[in-house]
Amino acid sequence: xxxxxxxxxxxxxxxxxxxxxxxxxxxxxxxxxxxxxxxxxxxxxxxxxxxxxxxxxxxxxxxxxxxxxxxxxxxxxxxxxxxxxxxxxxxxxxxxxxxxxxxx
Length: 104
Description:
Blueprint lengths: L4 H9 L4 E6 L4 H16 L5 E6 L4 H6 L7 E6 L2 E7 L4 H13 L1
Parallel strand pairs: 1-2
Antiparallel strand pairs: 1-3, 3-4
């Protein structure tokens, strides 16, 4: 589920439906949100791909995507960011992002 900057760029360029949680090991809210994000990702059977990205290991792409606070969740469709959520999200909110992307 953890993705590298190169792989994420390839997925974006391929026009995939993607949800990415940007996080860091030292971030308390990130650690609190991680189980909910992983649960939704593991239960997701749609064509939406879900990944996490450690900003400490991927500084360049994180900066290029304008990540200034974490946790941040970005939703991509057809190569474009269509939604950005900053701050901790609940399992229900994460599920909502998946449903919006499927139906959008």
